[in-house]
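Hi there, hope your week has been kind to you so far. Thanks so much in advance, here it is:
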Amino acid sequence: MSTLAAEIQALLTTQQFGRALRTYTEVDSTNAQALAWAEAGAAQGSVVLAEYQHRGRGRLGRRWEAAPGLNLLFSIVLRPRLELSHLGLITLSASVAVVDALQQTDAALPVAVKWPNDIMLAGRKCCGMLLESSLGTGDATVVVLGIGLNVNQRIFPPALEPHATSMLLEMGRPVPRAPLMARMLASLERRLATMHQRPAGICSDYMRHMQSLGLTVHVKGPPPVTGTALGVATTGALRLRTPAGERLIHAGDLELAIAPA
């Protein structure tokens, strides 16, 4: 077990999340490793943590870029009892959980969520998520939630620099990763445990941090659509008011307009 993993487990307050923890110096993708572990029987809350991914995956087929040894790159095995159409509730719950953990670290952090699951600091992305699922035996669904959080990275590739940030850059000081990871796992376990009982509450908490709420947004699609962001449904879909009426957008790349609608 790595030093970081030992420090994390010594700080855990969870019942399940992080109790089974595999750590790697380098992997192809923590999601790929977690999916394989899940298919071999890994329990709910098992975590794969890596210092570097050479094939890290993001939403919409993008690659997740993160410097080695500075950030938190991990995936969690989940075994939810949700209809496939409602797996987006996991994304909402996880987004709120990450916001919780960041604000516990520094209450002054200017945190917001860009639909569906980008965590923004001062208008730039510091965290992304990727939810992948596979059907197991019977009706059990295995879901892997991958999270990449920029913690202590100072420099980003030129293409990402205008859009990316880290906790260090926003706080002006390094952030110890083990306590942060322990807080994130506790927050994730708590939020994901309650999402079944209070889906409307999860939506409400999500919308309190929603960057685009009440603003005109453009979703690239396909097909592209422009409208006013009204909030989110319990499926994780974006509720959008358009000239043709309200629409639910389940996937797409969202751009903000400058002024409220």
User: Anything to note?
Assistant: The chain has two domains: 3-208, 215-260. The radius of gyration is 18 Å.
